[in-house]
Fold FluG family protein.
Amino acid sequence: MYPLMPDPRISFQSFLYNHPNVEFIWLQFMSYTSNTLVRIVPIAKFKKMLQEDQWLALTRAVLHLLPGDRLAEGASPSGKFHLRPDFSTAYCQYGSSGTRAVVNVYSVDSKGEPLPECARSRLQELHQTLQYENDCSILIGFEVEVTFLKPKYEGNQIADYEPLNTPFQHSFTGMAPEDRPHIELIEAVARALKSVDIELEQFHAEAGPGQWEFVLPPFEPVTSIEILLRARETITLVAQSFGYRATVATQPFPQQPANGAHIHMSLNAMNEATTNANANVNANRHQNQNQNHDSSQTQTQTQTQKAESFFAGILHHFPAILAFALPNDMSYSRIASGTWSGGEYAAWGWENKEVALRRIENNRFEIKLVDGFANPYLVLCALLSAGIIGLRAGLALTGGPCVRAAAQLSADERCMIGLKDALPDHLDASLDALEEDGRIQYLLGQGMVSSYLAVKRGGGRVFEEDWGSGEEASFACEIRLF
């Protein structure tokens, strides 16, 4: 089952009609190292390519590159793939006066079929599987936690960066006097996001110095990611216009609160609102209100059971999911009780900030064990795969409800709610868990998993060779790469 790919020629003409100043097309996709890769095509050349039904070709090796553009072990330097644009994702980049159109792409072969490594296509396919098998759909909303930095100069050169505030001048949901000089920056971000068609739910100060959170609206999985990437790019550009830098790196500064990339996820009936209600009315026109009430209650219970099985699958496969969600050793430095980061166990709790899954409604959870190092396409692929496994098996939701951090429970208390071993506390352990999880591998596809494992294991070796080991090297690398 391949995802439906819209004809770019039709949507391209519509986009150009509404954006006549476009001069350059930015074809954009994300690597397994979570870098955004771009090929820029002048508009005249792009029109000619569409007329001739040609897509831009790249070496397939780019999908297997480590940091520093080294090829992962076992990957071939030969072969090519094509970038098929999806103009339903197109927007004019903030600050470009409408001259730059950013477009997300599918990675396809010469026949136009998605590559095994194309996480964007795989995510669409997994969502279609969920819809077909369970008559359910997923809505995803991301939180963007970002730290704003100001440069430190030595002479005329930028020597380093530091946060806009000190730890005692900035606090969670606060508005200290020291925050006031920077409110123009924060409001400029909100205005810029609106200019690229992102309507924020809310925004507020976070706990770390210079740290803010922007809450994005919910969409279906692929769209939610592309809104996330658009938001991050726009925030970066606004910060640059103020002479600052914005980073989603996990922990830009030692001993300070870290950035997460929390995901709000809800499992919903396909036609939950008026369609089901009207069908019930027509089918039961002559039945009494109590019968209608019982039917509605049964549907609600069934939908809740589906949601619980879906999220039970996520909890059960969390060790493997962490290989994608926390894809760097520094990612694990923020995971500890008392930091609202998700904790050390695959646990859940109602409105509990100290567990991996914070339950907000019967069908909606916040997934906290994700950070800005992650490729969100891969993360959602892993989450949906685990959820589908849970639904197919009819898993019961265990691991909660917790009212405090799972690590603060006794071993007997954890055992009573189905919590056994702690989650992996470093990347190699998560990668090992992914290698051992055959069910997740089956749904993701062996081509995707083997390529990812090679890139991540090779990337760890490159990191040590180029930056050394230890905490100081990790922080130095974070601040420069993200």
